[in-house]
Amino acid sequence: MSDVATQALSASGDDGLAGVLASVASGDAKAFEQLYRATSAKLFGVCLRVMSDRGEAEDVLQEVYTTVWRKADQFDATRASAVTWLAMIARNKAIDRLRATPAAARTAPIELAETVVDPGASPAGSAAAATDRERLGACMEQLDTRRRTLIRTAFFDGATYEELATRIGSPLGSVKSWIRRGLQQLRACLEQ
Fold first, then answer.
1. Mean per-residue pLDDT for 29-53?
2. For position 23, what pLDDT does the model report?
3. CB 3.0 to 4.6 Å from 94: which of 50, 85, 111, 152, for a disulfide?
4. How crowded is residue 4: how many other Cβ atoms within 10 Å of its Cβ?
5. Under a CB-based contact definition with an 8 Å cutoff, are residues 83 and 42 in contact?
6. Is the pLDDT of residue 98 over 70?
7. Which residues, 6+ apart, have CB-to-CB distance to 161 below 8 Å?
8. How far apart are CA 72 and CA 31, in angstroms?
9. CB count in 10 Å sphere of residue 90
10. Please, what sign has the CA dihedral across residues 128, 131, 135, 140?
């Protein structure tokens, strides 16, 4: 699907996704591709929040779209929005994958505890991370409001450039340029 078609689908909002889901339910492969392109980033974010492993989250995302292909006819717009329905499938599949983790991996002998690396940061690492967060926050505040909002939405909320352009009604190239310049300003600020 072209960027124009993706923007049109994003602009049509949940009604557009509901229509695409109806087409998927009737076996339309092009509609399925449109649905994937419009929602995969968001659903991957849902999977990644539940799963700690990126590879596992990617596998779960594949299962999500397999389920959507098979069960698109079960979508009921009167009960939930299309995005909510898709996110629920993604979340449930991720939780199911976590629960399917072999019990042996969850109940390793206590003797192995000494060999397990603590994934948490050391006290020095935690202090450094807190300092870095404070510096980043201060540098973010130096950006103009538009750039700060675009960067936060793109990198912390996972929105695509196309979605941002549609939301604020600006050309895609302008949005990319504003974000790029904002990131350059952040880099310069953080290197001081």
1. 92
2. 94
3. 50
4. 10
5. yes
6. yes
7. 154, 172, 175, 176, 179
8. 11
9. 29
10. positive
